[in-house]
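Usage example:
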Amino acid sequence: MSSFHSFYGFLDMGGYAPFVWPAYAVTFTVMGLNIYWAKRLLRRARQAARRRIAVQEETHLAGPTEEPSV
Amino acid sequence: MAWTWFHRLASPPHIYRTAGRLTPWLAWPAALLIVAGLIGGLYLAPPDYQQGDGYRIMYVHAPSAWLSLMVYTIMAVAGGIGLIWRMKVAHAVAAASAPIGASFTLATLVTGSLWGKPMWGTYWAWDPRLTSELILFFMYLGYMGLRAAFEDVQRADRISAVLAVVGLVDVPIVHYSVVWWNSLHQGPSVMYLGKPTMPPSMLVPLLIMFLGFTLFFGAVLMMRLRGEVLLRERTATWVREAIRT
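Running the assembly step on the lines above writes:
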């Protein structure tokens, strides 16, 4: 099935190993970073929302604050 | 009214929940397809008669390039919809797309460069395809830089959407550059005059990778979209319920 005769042959990529493997490494690093960044964005957005709600509830419990007259 | 489904679909709480539910249904098929594509492309596919095993870079380069163009198109169309119909969720889609598109555009440039060295004898040339793809990368960076310059999300949405729409002109230029100008870069190889130029043993892993990368984008977009929707809903009561879990 395979086009390679040995594991070494697979790693060597017909002599193109210095180009093929870094290309795959870069692509999968980009994919990993995308997952990490997306999770971080969602986590931070949730934390920010939680803080905002906590502040709102605090001010609500403290009673109506004076509106600045314009 | 017949329009109620549309408003429901575009309502932030509905999008937040749906995106959360969709994520695993996109992520797991993406992972399976990419693993299958890797086995097919790196191991099972025969070597190319001219490029030997060097052509296997194609299995990550071409799907990355596809994402770089598709994601920009989604970003610009979503930004345009946000501008015209003042739809927050559309702006959130555009903002969520940008970093994903930018990173895959960079992957396209780097993997292309690594493919160019052994085949063309150079990592870089100011060739129409390469140059227009580099401009695409700068468009993404410009879009993200512009967004970061505004404290107010709504203003950032509107102004960056204009840039995204204007920059859309580069997408067909990248795509047709190899047809319009004499390019170092090879022409379209998946579909040429409706007939694939590759045998199925090479083509099938590539198509699997295209699908896998596209679903991967979908999964990451859903995660980012939830974050972007939350950032735009500063006081809505549904947010209280949504972040409780």
